[in-house]
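Quick one: structure tokens for this chain, please?
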Amino acid sequence: MVIDLAETSRPKLTKSILKIIFGNVLIGFAYAQWMRPNGIINGGVTSIAMILERLTPVSIIYLANGITLLLLLLCLIFLGKETFLKSVFSGICYNLFFALFTLMPFSFNIYIAVDFLLACLIISYGYYCCISAKASTVGMDVIALVLNKRNPKINIAKTIRYINLIVLGAGFLVYGLWSIIFGVLFSFINTYLLQIFLKRKKQGA
């Protein structure tokens, strides 16, 4: 991966890359070990892949990769070179860690309520790590970041929430009522925590 060092110092670049890796370790682990096993969809890329997996014979890993490539195209067109390159790296990290944690021979499931709360916290912080490093997670945040770039008044976290709710509506018939209820709760809690993390980042800047 090549990033123009004129735009950012080497120590800052290194810090950003480490944040992107760490954020995707958290997100990949939480989706693979808590969200997918419990059938909880939240409206993101993995959720879309989970829905399509139920409707097609295609593996969730291939579906997630395909959707990721489409979002990367949007990132390239609208978010600029630096964000695109970091997002490519972020997307590779996420798909690698999601596949790794999905294929693990053992599970970290505790209890669905505990899994749910841990996933809310860990995924929101993972998103924060990537966004604060000027990278997308190559998820629905790409759309939110594009809209925010065109109009800074658009709230990133709330836009992600609304997109998630639209996807949840599409997934109702596939995963049933309880999964959707958990998904709606997840979307609100996750984006609420993300908004707190981003606000603290902005205040500390």
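The chain has a mean pLDDT of 85.
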